Amino acid sequence: MATMNAQRTHKVEVVDEVKTRVGAATASIVSEYRGLTTAELAELRGTLAAVGGDYRIFKNTLVRLAIADGEYQPLSEYLNGPTALTFVQGDISAVAKALRDFSRNNPLLVIKGGLADGSLLSPGDLSALADLPPREVLLARLAGALAAPMQQMAGLLQALPRNMAYGLSALIDQRQAGGEALPAEEAAAPAEAEAAAPAQEAAAAEPVEAAEEAPTEPEAAPAEEASE
Predict the structure, then answer these.
(1) H/E element, 153
(2) DSSP SS3 for 28
């Protein structure tokens, strides 16, 4: 009785663990490991761990219980034979590439499919993901693609005032060459400004000159001299 209770408790713990791991993973990949040795499985675990993959082996019946009636239930169609789950944390393309490369050297590893964002992934889908560049490279390419138009826009904005000035100057020259005079107000304004300056200077100088040229009045003689 105690043994049965212990087994039941263990099964419940495994089901809960699978639920937790599947829920926390960005993707889950199912593979078959029939015929792989313990050493090869250990090597596979280490390879996947280096790129964000957690390789785990559970009983299919317990995995089915864990994903039943949920968004991960479609994985059930891959749970046949000795299967393992790879829980992806991060870049799925890096994990898919590690699995594919390992299977090339160890054909007994069979990649059956996976699930990401609620969508099933076939072996072909995972192979296509494995061919993608690493996430850092994709981000660098995206940043470069976004930066190029911005640099071009900055150059255009910088050249806009200069080009506008050249265009206006060329337009004025063209209109004048064709015999068209500038509007009267625009043409008269500079001349009036030039003529006004000497007139103001002359007006300011006149009171000074008048003061210098005015004759001084003779001083009145003393009263005694006048009486004589």
Answers:
(1) helix 135-177
(2) strand
What's 69's domain CATH number? 3.30.70.1730
Strand partners of residue 28? 87, 115
Q: Which amino acid is at 165?
A: A
pLDDT in tens, 164-206: 555 666 666 766 676 666 555 444 444 454 454 444 444 544 5
Do 86 and 38 touch, CB atoms closer than 8 A?
Answer: no
Token pair, residue 191, equals: 């001349």
Task: Tell which wins on pLDDT, 164 or 143.
Answer: 143
pTM of the model: 0.60
Which alpha helices (DSSP H) does 25-134 contain, by range?
38-49, 60-67, 92-105, 123-130
Instruction: Please spell the DSSP secondary structure of 111-132, one letter per residue.
Output: EEEEEETTEEE-HHHHHHHHTS
| Tokens encoding 7 | 């087994």
**Residue 143 pLDDT > 60, yes or no?**
yes
Q: What is the domain range of residue 54? A: 2-135
Q: In what order do the strands lie in the sheet with 119-121?
A: 53-56, 83-88, 27-32, 110-116, 119-121
Residue 171 in domain: no
Measuring CA to CA, how many Å separate 99 from each of 35, 96, 114, 192, 219?
A: 16, 5, 12, 86, 125
